[in-house]
Amino acid sequence: MIQELQIRVLPWQAANEQSIKAYVAQEKGLDIRTIYHVRVLKRSIDARQRTIFVNLTVRLYVNEMPADDEYVHTDYHDVSDQQAVVVVGAGPGGLFASLRLIELGLRPVLIERGKDVRERKKDLALITKTQKVDDESNYCFGEGGAGAYSDGKLYTRSKKRGNTDKILHVLCQHGASTAILADAHPHIGTDRLPRVIENIRQTILKCGGEVHFQTKMTALILHGDQVEGIEAVSLRDGTQRRFMGPVILATGHSARDVYRYLDASGIEIEPKGIAVGVRLEHPAALIDQIQYHSKQGRGKYLPAAEYNFVTQVDGRGVYSFCMCPGGFVIPAATGPRQIVVNGMSPANRGTQWSNSGMVVELHPEDVTPVLGGAVSPHLAMLEFQEQLEANCWQQGNMRQTAPAQRMADFVNGKLSYDLPDSSYAPGLISSPLHFWMPDMIARRLQKGFQRFGQMSHGFLTNEAVVIAVETRTSSPVRILRDRDTLQHIRLQGLFPCGEGAGYAGGIVSAAVDGERCADKCVAHLGR
Fold first, then answer.
1. Apex CA 240: angle with CA 235 and CA 245, to 5°?
2. pTM of the full structure
3. What does the DSSP assignment read for 160-210?
4. How high is the pLDDT of residue 161?
């Protein structure tokens, strides 16, 4: 007999299958020996009151064992002799577009300017050692895209655009923990996600697809208003190549050379609103104490605490973004003369720090007066990002050492004479962020921090450090596409995809958009 029920238990009771069995047996009057297995379908933490509860939806197997796997398998067959589709970018959008093409009987040819996820990791380590960034292999470019080393969070609010559950099941099929199917805010972990990405690549290759690393798209091959493929160059030896077929363009939010190429070629794009700010890092123990209402913090059975803040300041949103409990702050620049910070967490979320982006919503009209008239109107937000990142680099002594300020000092407009310990490996340098950051950002952050401190006692503190600058929250450009066909509004056979095209925000929503673009590509080919 199989039963499903919802229960509300203390953290220690939700800690493992045996304790859940014991609770259910007592509540339902069952003999615990007859409960062969308990499968947790949904899990969330209710920390609104001083007594913390865990809400569970569980499936009981009474006097029988599960006859199925915890996740739904997707079948992938050999497509080695099928029509090719060029997929540019091996981030979540490109990887899931490739898998979906195989599922639908087409052969993906995946082009990635960066290195495979294993080789890429070596270049990331060099950023701290050399204080230099490889502009083709970094925290944004390479197999897995920005998501591979940007925490691996799988939570999304984009429920209307596609099957988000399927994305999670496919990740489980490729090695992710099935816990992501149950958790309210699922998370793979930066230390485990690369292996999942490698397994997806192996599926693509095993089924007859192609994967080309260190291969950079330089142009689209056009015949009138028809895209017939791409021109590309090998970054290993300079060899020029052509890859023919419809193009799914999933280059990620930092492929600025692609945006400039599209703009120069007259291919329709537009500036898109972004959010810009800082990384805010607290001691993880302090966040645990605040969120779990206890001086003892999270204790033995609770995970590192998360938070979510949002307010309005002078007509613009100020909010936390990509919160990484028990994580690290990382250098996420994609070229020289830039400082960009982001956050990530290992699977166990076990470091002594917790961080999040704290950002201000900006619209294109906000940055035009700052930039003046010497920029393409389509690239205004991109140019603003670049100017702020370059200014941050100068403040950081022209290295990857990031300018930083204690949180309360930032709010009060004071210089920090020293800084707390930080997870940011290249190092911090004390800097008056309140003085040199654009006033429309700094002033709103100051007011936002004051409000967050009122909402959550102890949050506004000089134990926390504000690290500049967080600019890559989303694409600064939208590549215009038809609402129904997902093709570019003018060019047939070009499918702008995912976060880089301005139609997603995060791993799952980009993956969903990749699948949708693959579906529309199949329809375009009449298959």
1. 105
2. 0.95
3. SSS-HHHHHHHHHHTT--GGGGTBSS-B--TTTHHHHHHHHHHHHHHTT-E
4. 53
